[in-house]
Amino acid sequence: MAIGILLVGGFGTRLKPLTNQTPKPMLPVGGLPVTEHQLLAAKKAGITTVILATSYLSEVFIPYFGDGSKWGMQLKYAVEKEPLGTGGAIRNAAELIDLEAAKAEDEEFVIFNGDVLSHHSIAAQLEFHRKNKADITLHLISVEDARAFGCVPTDDQGRVTAFLEKMDNPVTNAINAGCYVFSPSVISDIPLNKVVSVERETFPNLVNSGRPVFGYSEQSYWLDIGTPAALFKGSRDLVNGAFAAGEGTTFGPDSLATGGSSIGANCEIGQGVRIENSIIGDNVKIGAGALIRDSFILHGSEVQADAQIVSKYLSPTENLEISPA
Ligand code: GTP
């Protein structure tokens, strides 16, 4: 069965300050870290061995996911001292696997950008890859306005013909959705311990040298949570109602949560508190009469009674503005 690699080592600069203490993939959406949603999707496709390719705040992942047995999976951790880029991270992670054995058995790798929520069928993407005897198969998604993205044209068999940079008149609305199947030989061709980008180097180089790179198009729920607005949207989409709260969370009289807010486990919410369109972590205490709107409250934070928290990032040590994205 295929092996998963999750790319979770980026700095998450566009999400600052939310990523000051939490790596982007560990930010909670709908009550669970993005990475956990992705592990569940991988498992659904039968992938049970997954390597987390970590770098920035790598120490945050292991205490939460451990060896993966809680999810019935086997998790391994690759750590880059300095971020190696998406390609370098994949190569470094594959050091934890016997690549020669993977080649002998034609065992594919499924690579996930760690900041994407996607409901596409990974199993169908793998099948498409095998049918085409591809080197790489990317999930492609069609967006209404592709000008903000690089676009990925394909021929009528789904073979990728080019990787094009952002442009005013994109030739197609199909964009790279951030989930790739790699044949093992492609991974061993990436240089070890060098900074490499799959998007800017590996993919275009393979296409230019005539190698079989395919696009698997499936139009299902898809969201890149790379900005604060997108992160809040992802959480609202998962909550799909007024609010969701984790186990052990208690609400005082006359408190009200709305706007698809997500509240973690074991929170104490005081009397008359209002929570609107916000993400709140576990073990948060909110004093009576406080208002929390469009804000992100990190695990373990405390909000004073009657505080007005609007468009803020709050952690046990920081209280900062979230700039509109
Ligand atoms: P921004 O700084 O806001 O652009 O975010 P990012 O660099 O964290 O993410 P980007 O969207 O550029 O990268 C896509 C995915 O690859 C994210 O899940 C990142 O965590 C991951 N990633 C990016 N660069 C590296 C890297 O050098 N090493 C590892 N292990 N992962 C990376």
Automatic annotation (TrEMBL):
CDD domains cross-referenced by the UniProt entry: NTP_transferase
Source organism, top-level taxon: Bacteria
Gene3D superfamilies: Hexapeptide repeat proteins, Spore Coat Polysaccharide Biosynthesis Protein SpsA, Chain A
Domain Mannose-1-phosphate guanyltransferase C-terminal residue range list: 246-310
PANTHER family in alphabetical order: SUGAR-1-PHOSPHATE GUANYL TRANSFERASE
Domain Nucleotidyl transferase: from-to ranges: 4-238
Family: Belongs to the transferase hexapeptide repeat family.
Source lineage: Bacteria, Bacillati, Actinomycetota, Actinomycetes, Candidatus Nanopelagicales
Protein name: Mannose-1-phosphate guanylyltransferase
InterPro entries the record matches: GMPPB_C, Mannose-1P_guanyltransferase, NTP_transferase_dom, Nucleotide-diphossugar_trans
Pfam entry (one): GMPPB_C
UniProt keyword list: Nucleotidyltransferase, Transferase
One Gene Ontology molecular-function label: nucleotidyltransferase activity
Keyword match Transferase: yes
